[in-house]
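User: Please predict the structure of the protein below. I'd like the answer in structure-token form so I can feed it into my own downstream comparison script.

Assistant: Understood. Taking the following sequence of 142 residues as input:
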Amino acid sequence: MTRLAVLLACLALAGGAGPGLTGCGAAPDRETSAIDLGAQVTLAPGAAVSARNTGMTVRFIAVTEDSRCPRDVTCVWAGEVRVRLEVQQTPQAASQLELLEGRSAVAGRYRVTLVHVDPQPTSTTRIAPQDYRATLALDEAG
């Protein structure tokens, strides 16, 4: 198949892909879900969550470090995983922070906790950036 034919096929797919999707390399538009304070949510990279009645939105940007011991290996050190989040408390004020798994950070009146990051690494497979999932908890900093 020639490059032109591939390009035309992608354009044809884009026309019928539906709202928020494009042809080749289809990906949904960034969506924001809403949760109550105290709840946990699992996000894919690029996804966001807002805490109801707070004006706060948290977006999972990416995993910036993953040195966790693969589950099929015995290690002396367990390692750690770090993610970058964007926290927006007003339409004009957004900041980024990095959190280690199991740690929290305070953003204004609220606390963001990185509860868990999946998948666990294995020694035989590299985790693609888009395959990570971050489980977050949002609550009042009280």
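That's the full token string. The helical segments are 3-15.
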